Amino acid sequence: MLGTAPDIVGETVENLCEQERLNREIHRLTVREKWVLEMRFGIPNGSRKTQRDIAKILGISRSYVSRIEKHAINKLGKTLAVDEQPPK
Question: Which residues form the HTH cro/C1-type domain (predicted)?
């Protein structure tokens, strides 16, 4: 069943807020971490690349791309989780 108009608008606003938070936090990553995530997830143009493609572009191994990607995602996850903590 489709959501009501207020539900859809609320979800859209929430998604936009999350997108803004993510964009702010991405700038805290190293240049290489940022490049890997941008290419991997198609940020901002939607053109996703495989780890193998990224490895060729950056001149590194696919397994190293995987480690960079995992580290960057973990770093973002920790930062975003801390930001979600209610004030004490």
Answer: 50-70
